[in-house]
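fwd from M.: "can u put these together and see what the complex looks like"

so here's what she sent:
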Amino acid sequence: MTTGFLVTNRSVRWFLLALALFTAVVAFGSEASGAGLISTSLVKTLGKTLCLCLIAVAMDVVWGYCGILSLGHFAFFGIGGYAIGMWLMYARTEGIVMSSLSGQVIPPTPQEVSDAIGSQIFGVVGSSDFPLVWAFADSLSLQLLMVIVVPGLLALVFGWLAFRSRVTGVYLSILTQAMTLALSLYLFQNDSGLRGNNGLSGLQNIPGFEGTSQATISLVFFLASACALALGYILFAWVVAGKMGSVVKGIRDNEARVRFLGYRVEGYKLFVFTLTAVVSGIAGALYYPQAGIINPAEIAPIASIYLAVWVAIGGRGRLYGAVIGAALVSLLSSWFTGGGAPDVNLGIYRIQWTDWWLVLLGLSFVGVTLFFPKGIGGLFDYIVRKPS
Amino acid sequence: MKNYLKTSACVVGALLASTSLVAAQDCADPIKVGVLHSLSGSMAISETTLKDVMLMLIENQNAKGGLLGCQIEPVVVDPASDWPLFAEKARELLTVNNVDVIFGNWTSVSRKSVLPVLEELNGLLFYPVQYEGEESSKNVFYTGAAPNQQAIPAVDYFLEELGVEKFALLGTDYVYPRTTNNILEAYLMDHGIAKEDIFVNYTPFGQSDWATIVGDVVKLGEDGKQVGVISTINGDANIGFYKELAAANVSADDIPVVAFSVGEEELSGLDTSNLVGHLAAWNYFMSADTPENATFIEDWHAYIGDDKRVTNDPMEAHYIGFNMWVQAVEAAGTTDVDAVSDAMIGQTFPNLTGTTAEMLPNHHLTKPVLIGEIRADGQFDIISQTEPVPGDAWTDFLPESAVLTSDWKDLKCGMYNTETKTCVQLTSNY
Amino acid sequence: MLRILAALILSLGFAALAQAQDLQPVLQDHADEIAKPSRSSVSTALDALIASGLPQVTPFLEAWTDKGIWQRDADGMFFYGNAKGSDLTLRNIDTGAETTVSTVGHTELRPNGGVRRVIGTALVQFQLADPDITRRLSAIDSIARRPDADQLIPLLGSIDTEPDPTLKARKIQLANFLSASFAEDVADRIAAIDSLARDTSIEARAVLNQILSVSSQVTADEPTGGIARILSVGRDLTEAEAYERLVAANLAPPTIPPVAIRDALAANVIEGRVGGIPTAQLGTDATRAQAYAALAASGSVLPFVTPQDQSTAIANHTFYEAYDQDDTAITDAARAALSSVETRVAASRFADLALDGLSLASIYFLAAIGLAITFGVMGVINMAHGEFIMMGAYTGYVVQQFVPDYTLSIIIALPLAFAVTFGAGVAMERLVIRHLYHRPLETLLATFGISIALQQLAKNIFGTQARPLTSPGWLDGAWVLSDVIQISYIRIAIFVLALLFLGLILYILKRTRLGLEVRAVTQNPGMAASMGIDPDRINMMTFGLGSGIAGIAGVAIGLYAKVTSEMGADYIVQSFMTVVVGGVGNVWGTLAGASLIGFLQKGIEWLNPSNTLAAQTYMVLFIILFIQFRPKGIVAQKGRAAAD
């Protein structure tokens, strides 16, 4: 059973092969390997894209397989980022503070060290005390644990409340959207203790590796993201392959019928919701050290809507579809807004892509929804397998 | 003496090298200027104009024959008001496009996002917006106002000229208002204003429901003290705020409002006939009556093709910053970041309000502080103008910062503790 | 010569100065104070001007405050000036002779607000009995802004001759305020104070609070004088604050903060030891205290003030607040008057909060009501709803570009906005939504795509700057019930508009054939079609109606807030929550939802007035919990129609 799904589901093997190839190409072409064909900023972009692919796969499982259109999964992504970001900021600042205090005649007391770190971290936002949420920020292992536990716990409580009340369909979507809105509003407050609108920054500087170049660090994170995506993909492929996968798909297609068959629908939904939340948290924890900064705008409702759109464009109910959608849209966005696309001169009007890209993107959502309801993945199916 | 000889030999060598470089330069590799302003998203409202100003300044410089005999090529990217994207785009500008300098950013958080990248890759950024201070990076030149060049003089004006005894500090909930208000609270308490007489309120970005808050402010007058409002409300939230203020008949004679983030650009979004007499503090107003300003406005109108477009303070900051950079590059004979940084310190350039701006060793400018009263046509009457004030990176009014200083010329440190005589850190806080 | 003479006469303080007929020399004597006035220095110039007794003084001062005075840079002469473009018409201060010159070489005098207020006060005595009512009004405003003991007598003198009844009432009120603060006779003062007990205006309370101003005191003996209250340490002020006050009053030695201890230790290092303890061991508070104690024992530093010392010092002193006004009869009367006013004020404040809540609810309702039809009745998730609001607002802006009259432009803009967004809604329904009725969640994606495309299009067309949408003059200002209860007319208009639409939609849905058909199609499209109703047409009309109302809401919202390409995004999530909380499929539900959210938000803001963001956070949390426990909203649909 444990490996059976790999045999039956050929797409997993193909996907892993493609991912391995891609990873190898990037690794050997990167600046860190000496080839220098792929710039560090591109490696970072690609690494971040892999993290986005991971959360898109999670989204696909919760929406495409289980039928819960969650518009709040970026909340879990963000929490993962904040959890790791707190340690990164604390440890980096501690290093700076210790080296600056070491020159003094009288050794500093633990309180003085903590005060100095506090004023370094929070001085930027006009405060200097350590809020309670930073209690474990000095311990990497505890913060890593929080990457998993906090999103999981939030999803568990939220999901339990919502599924127990049988909130479904659009209502659930709006409820999850309200959740991420509440979280982002809370974090926007300066008093939340997580530096408000500024968020946590300078996360690309990994404490203990000050001497290591960003080229190397970015490659390490890229490889880690690739591994995480591979593992996450295998995990979810396994989840949706077995008997549980059938029940989950049954819930998507007709929840009442599955319930009448004697399955505890809430339990299955809760499991899927929580598991995907945890994976989202991990994806976030890998994403933000590459992005360098996390702030509440990252978890505003619109981010989660985009996530749903990626999955829809890529094709729901196909894990590789989610990967294709996320990778395609986010990379295209980056290319168009970066001024990479040449302007089109129509003679009377000059199309500047920075101005028109969003219009194009928006209309393509409409087009995909109307004409390719199965997304790009569906098109892929059509070519590879022929429709049944 | 030996050292001196060595340095002077170096300088001469560098000069020779750079001149030969200029001579050899065939401009196959033009000078590139990165423009890092949001053209989409929530900050596009303010930043798009700055992109246009940069393009105008570059075009004019090219018309004058460019720089070091080369044309300047602008590289415009759109970080889309997305803070992580600022870091990504900055890295791209510096490593992929190989720009020589970046002009950009508006919000503090976007600057903090870009800082680690700049310091890692030794880039150069000119930051044109008034900000909360408490920072001085080797790689950034701050051409906007520090708190002592805007907030403190405005509060002095309130205390001395308007006799305000009770303060309402209204701000959007982010770093600049938070830090500025902290500084102002400390400053006001030093000047004998009791803590109970300082009302602080923070609202979200884009707040539109102001009725209750305006009511709260009016209510402050019930103990018979003169009330004044210090507004660090950001961006388009101001429109609702001023509309509510006008609707509640709060005249500038009863409760004056001084704003630090409201300029000509923001006022163009509303009808100002009911707001006449309210105040703003900046280092530049479009109504400044100088020949330099007249030329600048003329150029701007010609470039943008619209006589109704206004100019504002951050535009002047870019004007000063860009021209100083040009001078520094000419002085250094190269666009190399370290050489230009060294040449920047001490550069002077006439600002648009009739005085001269000088780049200080702490990477801030000297700027005159202007206080303007809103007119019915959306412009400001300048009613007070100080001599240029040197920008202070670390405020003197917060105990933790009072001991810090920044000097990139002699001390070579942006965060130097004057008590312990040590450099706290070479990189910046972000 | 004349100047010297004038200065001489002035310095001698001769009243006979009236002989000198010209004002200009007097002005020139104080040229600096007049050209660059400051609040503290302007009074010298003002005193001299008024002392001159010249008739030109009043018009000069009035013109000065209105920025109507210019100075010639060449010789510093002052003129009345009126600039048109670069032409400047100068009028001689004394002779009235006019000349037209260029503005170059002349400077407009711009006295700041503080100076203007001082001038206003100086003008009071000339304006109180002026035949022109605007002058009398400005005198009254000046008194209200800067009450002064000297004003009482002239003010009382002008009351009897005041022809305007409103102004007379206002003068009496102000005279009362002045008497309460400044009357010579204690009985007069108390009588005036008593009369304020029913006045809820901020000014009246300001007068009372000024009389009741207190200062904090501390004493080791029995407190004396008019005591406002005795402060209890721990409840009214913390121990640290109390001790600080003792230190400030020189009643106790200052505490030694940790930083000072560290500095003292660092300054007393002898051969790597402080007070016998090696410096390497001074990394804890305990060892530092020990070392410091050793230093203090040797007398090289100030002794440490222990927490125990502090508590004893605090316990031995009384902290209290004393009235600055010595006469207890007056303070008692003022306190009684104030407490009676404050009960009224508290009630008014509650009413004001309720009005604010009502207004916020009507804004939410107006923003959501279109959605109540498209989402609530038809079940279409239209993420572009916010962009329809934005389109309506921009329509208003465009109309104002062509029709300069604000009233007319709004009258044109409202139906036009409806037409534009109705058209957009119909087009969207025909082209996109029609194909997705059997896939409701996917309309979310398609309409989200439309939403971001429309937003960017608006940016490309109108630019990123906020655009002005100005309300007509008759909507300016506020409906003032008292200083505490007031609401702006524009908010009242929005409230009326919301009511109007509530009525209109109820009427359309319940009383018209279209409404009947809409309800039929939403309940069972198949059955409706077989009864001869064309579901396509009905869906199109309903969607158009919902979108059209969003357009009108856009004009209203643009009038009170801002017009930007992103304004729609501010309302979309809020609107969906309003509809869901209220209960889908029912216009009354949306009303209930909007009211709940509006009032609750104001309630939370009232509890925590310094942080609006927190109020919004708690609001959303409340909505999440509310939906958990009442998933179908306040007004839940029953029966089969309620099934998804």
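replying to her w this: The radius of gyration of chain B is 22 Å.
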